[in-house]
Amino acid sequence: MFDPTVFDNLKVVLEGAVYDMDSEGQLQVIGRTDRIELSAMSRFYAIKFILPEQKDTWAELRLWADTEDLAGEIMELGSVTLGCHMQPVFFKYVRDPVTDCPRIEQLVTEIWGRHVGQTQRISTIYGQTDALPLNEISVHFMRRFGEEVIQDLPQMLEHMLIMLKQL
Questions:
Q1: b/e per residue, 32-47, with b = 16+ CB within 10 A?
Q2: pLDDT one-digit tens code per residue, 43-65
Q3: What does the DSSP assignment read for the chain?
Q4: Do the beta carbons of residue 93 and residue 86 sit within 8 Å?
Q5: pLDDT (tens digit, 9 = 90+) per residue, 119-160?
Q6: Are 133 and 93 in contact (CB under 8 A)?
Q7: At residue 167, does pLDDT exceed 90?
Q8: Cα–Cα distances in Å, from 150 out to 80, 124, 155?
Q9: Nearest of 70, 98, 75 to residue 85 by alpha carbon
């Protein structure tokens, strides 16, 4: 009998929660990725959304399990901590990275706490001097997530909506 992995269970619940919020008008799904990497035997899922009234800033919630995660669970290896990785990522065009990035860094700390890591990556397209730089803001959790967080997924999505509103 097939027993779904932690990744599968989290993905189904996460996807359902996001689409419920979409149908209620709280957010609008603008894309998703569901990938199985056969060469490394890993899984990756991401769902991207915007606030309906704010189309220039968007978020993506990424979920992935690598070979060790999947093999450890399928083979029931006691030496492997079961779970997968989860990462909220936000995208916003910024006018002045020198002043905007410290403000965003403080916002991430206020919303997500001091126990998370964060990265801001600024990118531009060479030759397009009139285009605003894009800031990719990643929140890094320093642990794996198991099925015990299923009940917390709506709260994580609420935090993502708060972040989007305040960016």
A1: eeeeeeeeeebbbbbb
A2: 999 999 999 999 899 999 999 98
A3: -----HHHHHHHHHHHHHHHHHHTTS-EEEEEEEEEETTTTEEEEEEEEEETTEEEEEEEEEEEE-HHHHHHHHTT-TTS---BEEEEEEEEE-S-HHHHHHHHHHHHHHHH-TTSEEEEEEE--TT-TTSPPEEEEEEE-SS-B-GGGGGGHHHHHHHHHHHHHH-
A4: no
A5: 999 999 999 988 999 999 999 998 888 888 899 999 999 999
A6: yes
A7: yes
A8: 20, 37, 10
A9: 70
Which of 63, 59, 82 minimizes the C-alpha distance to 10? Answer: 63
What's the pLDDT band for 69 if we cut at 50, 70, 90?
low
Q: What local confidence, expressed as pLDDT, does residue 38 receive?
A: 87
Give yes or no for a contact between 55 and 27, defined as CB atoms under 8 angstroms apart.
no
> Pairing mode, if any, of strands 117-123 and 85-93?
unpaired
